[in-house]
Amino acid sequence: MLFVKLITSLIIGLICGFLGAWGGASGTTLGWRRIVMPVVLSVFGILVNWSLWFILVMLYVLPLTQGYGMPCFIVGYEDEGSTLGKFWYNLLKKEKLANIVTRGTIGLMEALVFIWIPIIKHNWLIYSICALGIISTNAIIGGFDLRFHKNHTFKFLKKDLLYNELYIYLANGIFICVMLIF
């Protein structure tokens, strides 16, 4: 039974990874990431736990609508950045550090919207480990802009998707599934 739960988490995680990366691709809508992914996780949570309380997984929409862009001052590429990115950039004055902290803050917000799960399921240890995983994944893969591949994009249904986004949302999807299942 443990094997089935882990494989299910991996499959749902892959779906989340592709939805998250697809939602960030040029010519697509962020709705794939911000709406469809939380709907998939909510339906999964309701089916696994047989409780309508798990519609609360839709709260995941809230941190997914937060921007994490950094201000850019390069001529021709000027961008004021997101409110959160601008806040950390102005406070820390170092772009790389501000990017890591911004992404970590997004991860913290994502983890906090699931704080109700251990209240219902009494799985505080699982929640704590998964919350740390969500925060770390966002800060490390997103903040350091890790490039695991020479070409940081891949083609999927004629769109260029970012490997980093695939990895972040895949990992977060798995962590959320583990919180929902165990």
Structural notes for this entry:
It is a single chain. This protein is mainly alpha-helical and 182 residues long. The chain has one domain. The protein has eight helices and two strands; from the N terminus they run αααααααββα. Strands 1-2 form a two-stranded antiparallel ribbon. A hairpin with a 2-residue loop joins strand 1 (153-156) and strand 2. The longest helix has 22 residues, at 2-23. 40% of the residues are buried. The model has no long low-confidence stretch (mean pLDDT 93).
How would you summarize what this structure contains?
The chain is mainly α.
Query: What is the CA-CA span between the terminal residues?
Result: 11 Å
How many helices in DSSP terms?
8
Kindly state the number of beta strands. Answer: 2
Give the helices and strands as they follow along the chain.
Answer: HHHHHHHEEH
Strand content: under 5%
